[in-house]
Structures are given as structure tokens and as C-alpha cells.
Amino acid sequence: MTARLIDGNALSTQLRSEFANRAAALKEKGVTPCLAVILVGEDPASAVYVRNKVAGCEKAGMRSIKDVYGPDVDPSVVLARIAELNADPAVHGILVQLPLPKHFDSEAVLESIAPEKDVDGFHAENVGALVQGNPRFIPCTPYGVMKMLESAKVPLKGAEVVVVGRSNIVGKPMAMLLLARSCTVTICHSQTKDLAFHTRRADILVAAVGRERMITGDMIKPGATVIDVGMNRFSSGPNAGKLCGDVDFESAREVAGAITPVPGGVGPMTITMLLANTLEAAERCAK
Ligand code: NDP
Known about the structure:
The protein is α/β, with parallel strands linked by helices. The chain has two domains: 30-114, Rossmann fold; 140-267, NAD(P)-binding Rossmann-like Domain (Rossmann fold, 3-Layer(aba) Sandwich), CATH 3.40.50. It has ten helices and eleven strands. The strands form three sheets. A six-stranded parallel beta sheet has the order 1-11-8-7-5-6. A three-stranded parallel beta sheet has the order 3-2-4, with helices on both faces. A two-stranded antiparallel ribbon has the order 9-10. Helix 6 (140-151) crosses helix 10. The termini are far apart. Bound molecules: NADPH dihydro-nicotinamide-adenine-dinucleotide phosphate. NADPH dihydro-nicotinamide-adenine-dinucleotide phosphate binds at residues 141, 164-167, 169-171, 188-192, 195, 208-211, 229-232, 266-267, 270.
């Protein structure tokens, strides 16, 4: 069997054109959706993510503000800027690109963002609302995965799901969202004793680890849906340096029923759902 592909690029294109229509409707009411992005330091990957987020806003007819600070900036400067953006009624979403330099208390920075503008969904108030099943903003990557499962019509109720990875950004919110849809969820992590025992039971397997091709075909239940969140680089071989996921795509696609590719799977959906959250924030303001 060769798995069918769940195409994140195609779904993103479709959703972003819907967002452009919603942004245009808001503009007619005098509200231009606006996302403020703060970048601190010189991490090249972060700079690319920020550039793509800003470009995504522009293409969807939304406004963006980009503030860039050097790696040695005093955290008080960034906190003061966040306070300013919190108070600005023309700004609907605020995002601080992670990771922050070591001299920053990242948690304090995330907590300083007004919860109603926290479009990444990382503020404790928003995490609490998600856990209670009443989310205000759903973190973008797991939100994108839910949209992909929905568009691929993957049955969720009662499904055995294994999420590999327990980060606050991906693994934990992913597990909560699937639980809310009545999946039976197992979360695995670096201390899990027999990872393959768990993954082989999964009707839906979500890999969010950050380790090049660690999930191989023999770890997958035949016919399962495999969602690869990982963004890694091939360390060797003919594709050295190119993007790859946590899943060994070639062996996995022979066993799985459906699979997301890397690139072109979860990656584009993350920015798409950031635009969705910004739009939702602006729509709430326009009510
Ligand atoms: P983190 O490093 O924060 O978390 C990784 C998780 O994987 C941890 O919970 C860790 O366990 C677990 N882990 C590490 N090694 C193993 C192992 N051998 N077996 C099982 N579990 C293991 O990463 P993120 O959640 O931020 O990101 C995960 C991946 O997703 C990365 O590749 C990242 O680049 C990618 N990503 C992609 C996005 C996209 O848009 N496509 C967006 C965000 C992330 P423990 O907690 O015990 O340490």
C-alpha cells in the first residue's frame, strides 16, 4: 500500500484565500487585521519564520508590524514595547518569536502579552482555557494539524492516538485537542520505555520530536494516519542539508494509510493558522 498524501500546501492555499475574503470584509467595516511580530537576536531560522509570517499577512490583506532587536537588548525594552502594543487598539495579534536569548525570562515575556492578543496561544490563561475545552486561541501548529485531519476526513472519535513529544508548543496542546475530539490519547517522550510498542497501536500517529527520521515504517500500524511535525535536516547522504521530518517518509508511506510530507505538510499550515488566529482576534474586536 502507498499512503495518500495530506497536502499542507494545497489546504493552506485554500484557507488563505478564504482569509483574504474575511480580511476584506473586515476592512469594509473599518478594521484592518494587524499582527505585530517581535524578533530578538540573530537566529537565522527565526528570521526566516518572521519573514514568512509578515509575508503571509501581506498576501492575505492584513497589516503587520515587525520589531527587530539585537541579541543584547535589555528585556525591559522588549517588555515596554509589548505594553505599548497591548494598549494599541489597531493591533489585534502580538507574537514574540522563540527562542529568546538566554538572558530573557521567556515565560515572563509570554505572560506580558495581553491574552486577547496572544495569537500563539502560549499565555497561561489561554493554555488553561484550552485545557478546559474552551479555547480562545489554539496554538498554531496543533491547530493546523487538526485542520489537516478534518480535511482528510480522518475519523477521530474513539481513535487510538499517539503523540510523540510533550512540548508546550506542540505535543501537549496537540494531545488536548485530540482528547477534546474523543480520541484515546497516549503521549510519549524521551523517557518512554518502548516507543515502538506505543506507535504500533496508533490509528493516528503525531511525531513532534525534532529527530531526523526516527519513526520508521516498522513502527507504524498498517493503514494509520501519520502526521509529521518535525523540521530537521538530513545529516548525511545525497540529500544532506535538505529538510526532512521526524518520520522516515519512504518506509512510512508503504505502511501508512495517509501521511503528511516534509516539506509541504504541517509547516505551511502553522503560518496559515497564525493568520486565522489574527483574523479571529480582529473579528472579535469588530463585533
Ligand atoms: P521540543 O524540543 O520542545 O520537544 C521535543 C519533544 O520530543 C520532547 O518532549 C522530548 O521529550 C521528545 N523526545 C526527544 N527525544 C525523544 C525520543 N528519542 N523519543 C521520544 N520522544 C523524544 O520540540 P518542539 O515540540 O518545539 O518541536 C518538535 C519538532 O517539531 C521539531 O523538529 C521542530 O522543529 C518541529 N516544529 C515544527 C513546526 C512546524 O511548523 N512544522 C512548528 C513547531 C515545531 P522530553 O520532554 O522527555 O525531553
